[in-house]
Request: fold
Amino acid sequence: MANKVSKSSTKELAENAAAYCEPCDSLGMAFSRHIRYWLSRDDDASTAVFYSLALSVKEQMLEAWRDTRSQDAQFDKKQVAYLSLEFLMGRALGNALLSLDLSDECRQALKEYSVTLEEVQEQEHDAGLGNGGLGRLAACFLDSCASMDLAVTGYGIRYEYGMFVQKIVDGYQQESPDKWLRSGNPWEVRVPVHNVTVPFFGRTESYVDRNGRRHVCWVDTHDVLAVAYDMPIPGYKNQRVNTLRLWKSEATDEFDLDEFNQGDYAEAVARKNLAEQITMVLYPNDSSENGKELRLRQQYFLSSASLQDLLRTWVKKFGTDFSQFGVKNAIQLNDTHPSIAVPELMRLLIDEYLLEWDEAWAITTSTMAYTNHTLLPEALERWSVRMFSYMLPRILDIIYEINARYMDAVAHQWPGNSQKLAEMSIIEEGHDPHIRMAYLAIVASFSVNGVAGLHTQLLKSGLFKDFYQLWPEKFNNKTNGVTPRRWLAYCNPRLSALLTKQLGEGWVTDLSQLRKIEGCVDNKTFVKQWQEVKQANKQELAAMVKQQCGVDFDPAMMFDVQVKRIHEYKRQLLNILHVIHLYHRILQGDTQNMVPRCVLIGGKAAPGYAMAKTIIKLANNVAHMVNSDPLVRPFLRFAFLPNYNVSAMEKICPGTDLSEQISTAGKEASGTGNMKFMMNGALTIGTLDGANIEMLEEVGEDNFFLFGLNAEQVAQTRQNYRPADIVSASPALSAVMELLTSGHFNLIEPGIFEHIINAILSPYDQWMTAADFDDYCAVQQKVGLAYQDQKYWTQMSIRNTAASGRFSSDVTIAGYRDEIWRV
Ligand code: 26Q
Reply:
């Protein structure tokens, strides 16, 4: 028997297995098989049903997954690797059922088990391997790539603990670990054949070979094993299953052996922990927290493991001729987080595969492409040279060499300008020199892109101005998008059904078709159905708010929502000030033309970001006052939703009337939550920032509530900003500030909001909350009036969904495909 197996090829074996399995291939039969096993354990029934179902669904994908791999290898397609420290995948079951068209079969299989599919889906833990926008974008991109039949592999880290779980205790954020793997991950497949080792520490030695060529060896390294865990990424009804390869760090065997041989068992086990620490936890900051050594280890670990994987695949197929590598491969860097892949690719090509510098550089620069996601200068990654020199000595050498050669190009462009050289150098000199990762990424990439029109403009005219002058051809825009499979077809089944009834199913893969429903705004039946859908979705959202926050949201009131990471530039504070303003008006009896609203804010603060945490506390305290006053209740309810995540957003965006996108203009690179709301028929109140600008262009001014300073005016106003004067000149803002300073919201905790009050009144307030307050309130008043005319509001809602087609990530990915990857 063993003999027979070894003689057959893997392919034959798989074919035989497939043929053999044919009769029991259905989802239902697989499910019966799994559930017998799972029910024999002590799990509760719904857990057992979820795991059985997930495993059965995965089995349905295995063949297509294998076929995808072998076809991509056979047909010599260009391969794209999407390198990201974050993939915010959320749940996989619902998405898989949609992609594989298995929902009906699934409900059938569940019939005997007295649970609904919805209940079973609630059992799945979110894969929260990301902070926010950047991580979720990576997840949406994977869905679009698979659905558009592109050979794209996601490379990331299999964090043992994803984004922390947020609890609210006495109004304060409390973080607890996210043990998402506790009961096992049914979707992943551990693939030890792809193991690679990643070197750390040690030192470099050089020697000259027989031909007189100098070589560098990186020796005495501490090696860490990278183990591949693959997750299937099914395309929408197209038989493609791409791969998300997540690396887990483990101790290497040799590593252990050395220590064991020295007889120090305890040391050896402790060292093992050191290796395993690397992939233990996701850093929960969404703007860079600089300098943490473990974070750099994560970045190098991901970059090195992924590149070794790519090169090994290449060598297996083409041998060590790398001349066509850049033609057949593209590597997309999701921000600078994996940008250490640049010197690492150089190292592997030169040290391991013995290429000359120029050849290696030509390959690197024809392969790498970099996406920037932030304009905040404080968020640009810098790493201390000192840390590099002991952790990654060989990599530091290579960065210096890249810089030296690149500085020649700068000197050529700006002869005799030593200031330019210093400003543009990859190395920031000083008593504690640092490496500027964004500069490294730009120098080595053939493409540098921003994530919305304004963002790219500002990169070219501000942050990366000099680089734009040097290499204008590298710079391009790719406005973000979100996948309509998860963010409409799956999360909003009622609206999907209505759209499909009207348009057929084509919109799911060609979202521009939604334009056609504009023609229905005067169709009374359609408008009524649209309202019924929204009403039902609002009921579901209200039930969630009730359950999570204990606050009654009345679906007859307007649902006004802001969910995203808590950040000063996103201005949750402005939203809270408006709530206080409404509260004050109600207490004054000034309720004429006031439309009853339920305001919801949700989002996590980075654990070390004190101001963001205070903003959460303020929201909770204000909510308490608002909700406990029976005079206020008829007009205003306010809740802070704990633990905002992907699964929460799936319920939130279908039930929202008004989406808050109120960042200080010029600060939000794009935003993607804004697009999810728009797709689901919410109206937006927003500034001219990020992708809001393009949303406004698509839907027209009449269907968008615009307010506030634009980016240029923000920069202008900053010159001579006097918030105290603005407050005195505004009766509304004065009243709000008075309530705040009087301690009305913190009677038993005096002084806790001092920082917030001072920030609003500071001439250095970067976020200019006071400057936009009056206009914000005035436009909010217009929103209320518009909402009173439900027919008119619904027509605007329909127009928003109709105009959202451009914000499908399929459109974005078509741009990456044609203009960057050229596959
Ligand atoms: C860096 C170094 C050390 C620790 C953490 C980090 C880090 C981690 C995550 C820095 C930044 C992030 C995430 C940034 C992010 O999510 N940016 C958002 O990206 C979205 C997708 O392009 C945009 O829509 C948002 O506008 C942008 O804020």
Summary: The two ends are 44 Å apart (CA to CA). Residues 1-7 have pLDDT under 50 and may be disordered. The pocket of 26Q is lined by residues 131-134, 137, 283, 285-289, 295, 337, 373-374, 381, 451, 480, 668-672, 690 (CB under 6 Å).
